[in-house]
Amino acid sequence: MDFEAVIGLEIHVELNCATKLFCDCPNRPGDPPNTHICPTCLWFPGAVPRLSRQALEKAALLCLGLEGELQPVSAFDQKVYYYPDLPKGYQLSQAHRPLSRGGGIEIPGEDGRPRRLRIHHIHMEEDVAKLVHEMEGRLPISLVDFNRAGAPLVEIVTEPDFRTPYEAMEFLKALRTRVRYVGASECSMENGTMRVDANISVRPAGSDRMNTKVEVKNMNSVRHVGDAIAHEIGRQSAAVQAGEAVVLHTRLWDPEKKVTVPMRAKFEGPCVPDPVVPVIELSAEWIADLRGRLPEMPAARAERFVARYELNAEEAAFLSADPEVAGYFEGLMAEGVAPRMALHWLSTQLLPAVREREAALDACPVTPARLAGLLRMLAGDEINAKAAREVLGLLFDDDAAPEAIVRRHGFGQVSDTAALEQLIDAVLAAQPAAVADVKSGQGKAMGFLIGQAMQASGGKANPKVIREMLAKKLGANS
Fold this sequence. Notes:
The protein is of the alpha+beta class. It folds into three domains: 3-284, no CATH class; 296-409, no CATH class; 417-474, Arc Repressor Mutant, subunit A. The protein contains 15 helices and 17 strands. Strands 1, 2, 6, 7, 8, 11, 12, 13, 14 and 15 form a ten-stranded mixed beta sheet that branches. A hairpin with a 4-residue loop joins strand 14 and strand 15 (259-265). The longest helix is centred in the middle third of the chain and has 20 residues, at 222-241. The chain is elongated. The N and C termini lie far apart (64 Å).
């Protein structure tokens, strides 16, 4: 029997706010344990939560960026369940009246056609504390760090529209890009600012009924999400084929063994309206003002790159996938760099150099203006590509202008034919066999002679001039 999967995602995104959701404690979970706590996030008797306006604005921008419909009225509920990392025994969430409903993201389907994956709703909630397990010593213990308790989150709950691991992975990539564009979160699964749970079930291909689902947690990369879904589809399909019942429960993904393992029974605590946090009422004017603050989103930016800079769709999509990369490219355009040269140097030289140094592009000392100065020298044949790559490396540690670095290190390119004449003659005299091969029509020999001339010049000769001079002397096509 052939099976198809039915998959829905629950994505928690930590908002990059200065403070926690309901108090003024700094929102820096990675700081020394229990240094950012107060009666509110520890939930002492009499503590009164106050909703962060910044968190509300960032959450609402995120909803608009995902094409959601902000609700005029939303409210917080008490999601009651006991767990050691939940200081008050319940979590403030929006189970019944979420901040936004609807929305979705269009991805390229596996068949090449666009596929729209829908969002059911987006709600705000507070994060729980962090458990630190000390397994060494005579008695293993678990410690609680409350720095994360009360951190502002949004949860994005999708419709069960996904059918393959590919669709889930592409959706997460597109969602991460959009959230970064609106500035609401870094969305790093590796650093925990985006966490994904997948709900997976299988059914006979062609059926429209819903079967028992299994939830999978503990996935800290987009690739792990895809691997976990693929494994769970295979596990459930084999179970159904063997006549075994699929039981509702939660599993963990083991990235080393590449399997899902049982964690616990699935349970839902009761959710009751919270009597303390005020209802959120959004006016049409406030929503319209917020919508006006939305930046140009990735798809629109890619379309503009294609139209204005004559890039193809794949190139434009690459540039627009990261707001920092897209902004850097536009900085090069403002400096007058040719679009294709800018794309080439940004993708093949600058970004790998930034990653190698574990730096951030927006804090990179090689600004668009400095890289543009280097590329203008390359385009004007003042330096060759090899020298330009060396100068690029020096720009990370030297705040001098590219032109000054070129002069200081003697990277200037020699294009004067009179200065290269003697060098060319010496190469031809030293390589009679290669000269004969060129004259007999063997094209590879010309490349060899160019390489010898470049080596003799210490890499400073203009390779185009070298080729032209060799072709003229040997009577070959350049």
